[in-house]
Write a structure and sequence with these properties.
Blueprint (H helix, E strand, L loop, with lengths): L4 E9 L4 E6 L14 H11 L4 H15 L8 H28 L5 H9 L3 H13 L3 H5 L2 H11 L3 H8 L8 E2 L5 H5 L2 H4 L12 E2 L2 H5 L4 H5 L3 H17 L6 E6 L2 E8 L2 E9 L5 E7 L2 H4 L5 H8 L5 H11 L4 E9 L2
Parallel strand pairs: 1-9, 3-4
Antiparallel strand pairs: 1-2, 5-6, 6-7, 7-8
Helix pairs in contact: 1-2, 2-3, 3-5, 3-13, 3-16, 4-5, 5-13, 7-8, 15-16
Length: 336
């Protein structure tokens, strides 16, 4: 079976003009749900989707209950579990992927060992305050944009050092506005475009930056999208460690239902319909990476600007955008 991965291709001709294309021929594992009873699909979900398993499971429960005629809502306990998963995943990214991308190696073993044993917010907060912020994360959160810029210029934690390196302006995509399931139900056609999801006709960035843009107007005005992208992830992490919770909602459609669940990478959408016997007749999962890998999305825009950059810089920028599946990069030069 072909690996489920994003394909990124750079073509460059002898005149040095370059073009980047991005595609993701997704395998759609959720097709296994068709014909199954709702309870069976809910049980199968964390087995099919190991990454963000809590978010996927919550979305499956919400959409199938809503499609079955119930008024589905996420409980406080479910939102707490969802937020804990996003918090652990963001710290994992910091310690492994982003450490690798910026420093050439994962964080020191003492940090990764602390992450493995940290299973609740107090333990994760202790780790984050030592490795990420170098101070109380509530105090850090209250600094504001000028304070965060002062922190990154003078801080000695690894993420502060990484942010200092991200001092080059780049083009960016228009950001997705905050949405709930009800608003999306009235405007679903855009999200389901065959060529990839759009909102009001445009490919959008759906990452933490879309949720934190109002906090970072100076960086966005300067076009410092990579710095804003990473800083937004740190803002989200600090908010979760201070008690904020991710959102999850469901809404009915004329032919079924949808559930929209926030994740660390952006909004996760599930769509479902049941037949007259209560079995699943239609099911689709649309993860945030569909937005990242859109042919006109943030990966293409960012990498197109960096066509002449090193492979290491490409890896760094892709890691910051943070697709949820593996990717392959191919490059060719045409001399004719």
């Amino acid at each position: 079976m072909t690996a489920d991965q994003i394909r990124i291709h750079l073509s460059q001709n002898k005149d040095r003009s370059a073009a980047v294309s991005v595609s993701w021929p997704r395998r759609e594992a959720e097709r296994l749900f068709i014909g199954q009873p709702a309870a069976q699909a809910i049980a199968m979900t964390p087995l099919l989707f190991s990454l963000c398993a809590q978010a996927q499971s919550l979305a499956a429960r919400l959409v199938l209950q809503q499609a079955g005629g119930q008024h589905a809502r996420a409980s406080d306990a479910e939102r707490a579990t969802l937020t804990l998963e996003a918090t652990r995943e963001t710290l994992r990214k910091l310690l492994l992927d982003w450490s690798q991308a910026f420093d050439g190696a994962p964080a020191a073993a003492q940090w990764t060992a602390q992450w493995r044993t940290a299973q609740d917010l107090p333990a994760l907060r202790k780790l984050a305050e030592a490795f990420v912020y170098g101070e109380d994360c509530q105090h850090w959160l209250q600094r504001g944009e000028d304070g965060w810029l002062d922190w990154l210029m003078h801080g000695d934690t690894a993420p502060a050092c990484w942010l200092r390196l991200l001092d080059q302006a780049q083009p960016g995509c228009t950001l997705l506005p905050p949405l709930g399931a009800g608003m999306l139900a009235d405007n679903l056609a855009d999200w389901l475009r065959p060529g990839g999801p759009v909102w009001q006709g445009q490919a959008r960035e759906v990452s933490a930056l879309a949720r934190e843009a109002e906090q970072l107007p100076g960086l966005l005005q300067q076009g410092l999208y990579p710095r804003a992208r990473l800083l937004a992830r740190l803002l989200q992490l600090a908010r979760w460690l201070n008690g904020s919770q991710l959102q999850a909602s469901a809404a009915s459609l004329p032919d079924g239902a949808l559930a929209l669940v926030d994740t660390a990478r952006g909004p996760l959408l599930h769509l479902a319909a049941l037949d007259e016997n209560g079995r699943i007749s239609r099911y689709r999962v649309l993860p945030p990476t569909l937005w990242h890998a859109h042919p006109e999305g943030v990966l293409r825009v960012s990498l197109g600007f960096l066509a002449a950059a090193s492979d290491a810089e490409w890896q760094r920028q892709i890691s910051l955008i943070d697709p949820c599946v593996a990717y392959s990069v191919s490059k060719e030069t045409e001399y004719a």
